[in-house]
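task queued by scheduler; priority normal; single chain, no ligands, no partner chains; default sampling; output format set to structure tokens
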Amino acid sequence: VRPLALSPDGTRLFACNTPDNRLEIFDVGVGGLTHLASVPVGLEPLAVAARSNSEVWVVNHLSDSVSIVDVSDVESPVVTRTLT
């Protein structure tokens, strides 16, 4: 289980919010973390991996799926595809 992932460029932190079935997105700055956005994913997200600076994959345990999230527009991240 890997509930946290850093973007390849090191500017974003992605975190699984398992109880709320969401992916949380944070900005990584000199002063710490700033919450930027939250996007609903499948049920019981357990692991996250940043495939690129604009695409994140989330493994959902209970829904037995993988959510592919486009985070290129951090103000409105969206699940672009769900793999079962």
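post-processing summary
- DSSP finds no helices and eight strands in the chain.
- The mean pLDDT is 97.
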